[in-house]
Amino acid sequence: MTNTSPATKADTSKLEAESRNATKAQLIEFWYYFSQNKGAVVGLVVFALLVLTAVLAPLIAPHNPDFQYRDSFLVPPFWEEGGKATFILGTDAVGRDILSRLIFGARLSLLVGVMVVTIALTGGIVIGVVAGYMRGSVDTFIMRIMDIILAFPSLLLALVLVAILGPGLINAMIAIAIVLQPHFVRLTRAAVLSERSRDYVVAAKVAGAGHLRLMFKTILPNCLAPLIVQATLSFSNAILDAAALGFLGMGAQPPTPEWGTMLAEAREFILRAWWVVTFPGLAILITVLAINLVGDGLRDALDPKLKRS
Fold first, then answer.
1. pTM, full prediction
2. How far apart are alpha carbons 40 and 293 in whole angstroms?
3. CA distance to 36, 114, 197, 247, per residue, from 242 (Å)
4. What is the pLDDT along the chain (309 residues), one digit of tens a residue?
5. Which class for 272: exposed (0-12), middle (13-18), buried (19 or more C-beta within 10 A)?
6. C-alpha distances in angstroms, 21 versus 14, 17, 28, 33, 54?
7. Is 256 left (phi over 0), alpha (psi -120 to 50) or beta?
8. For the chain, which residues make up each domain, given as ranges?
9. Is 91 helix (H, G, I), strand (E, B) or coil?
10. Calculated CA dihedral for residues 132, 134, 138, 142, nearest 10 degrees
């Protein structure tokens, strides 16, 4: 049994303390540059409230989102003539509380964003790292496929894929992830190309590191900053595309409380019941705007070229 000397323990503790201090300093620096963008801070607050609303939806929603009040069709918001305090934002054409459906719709929007970004980011990183590291015919083959996908309008391609897979929220998420994946592939490939010839990579290769270790443990961690920014912006694109597919009847299906589906159901009442269209549209607008503002702040904080002196 080997005994650890007091000097070794002291050195280990010192290294751990230095590592913690370095991490803390990096977080402080990140928050400093992020907080310089006031819009990003506002977006972060709004997004945090959205997450909190989604998590606590069963507790804060005043009604069951799918329950139909037969005596309350198209009731206006409570401040309008004919409104009821029970339904703060009014009801839809079949008597469902709009506020409750918006609150539960936040859950679906976040689910769509998380699942789509996870699928697109994971696949894009793997494919992009392979393309950038292997180069040659492998790189050419992969990038031509990505170019073909990018040649189609994103919403049109998503519609075609959903038509093939069948309408539904899960199929819509898969289709949107496929459409967004080329952006992650191209970004990862470009970052890998700029890193693969650096001294630390050459040193790891000389030390005997294998290809997988070089790709995913040596090079990839130094390529994550632009990918984080792209993931944030893709989050908002995923929510928009899912709402568009729901509006066209190819995404979430009724009576699912999804914002795009709510807009689709309210089309015929635009002129005589403005609230059934306005509130779902505002929910989409505010959510996407908040996420884009956070993405701008992340870009300012993570990109060395944009950091203010």
1. 0.83
2. 5
3. 32, 12, 40, 8
4. 455 555 565 656 665 666 667 677 778 888 888 888 889 999 999 999 999 999 999 999 999 999 999 888 889 999 888 888 899 999 998 899 999 999 999 998 889 999 999 999 999 999 999 998 888 898 999 999 999 999 988 888 999 999 898 888 899 999 999 999 999 999 999 988 888 888 888 888 888 878 788 888 888 888 888 888 889 889 989 999 999 898 888 888 888 888 988 888 888 888 888 999 999 999 999 999 999 999 888 887 876 555 554
5. exposed
6. 11, 6, 10, 19, 35
7. beta
8. 49-67+98-302
9. strand
10. -20
162 close to 250: Cβ distance less than 8 angstroms:
yes
Amino acid, res. 11: D
Strand-pairing partners, residue 91, are 97
Q: What is the DSSP string of 6-59?
A: HHHHHHHHHHHHHHHHHHHHHHHHHHHHHHT-HHHHHHHHHHHHHHHHHHTHHH
DSSP state of 82: T
**What topology is assigned to 49-67+98-302 in CATH?**
MetI-like fold (1.10.3720)
Residue 91 has phi, psi (to 5 degrees) of -125, 165
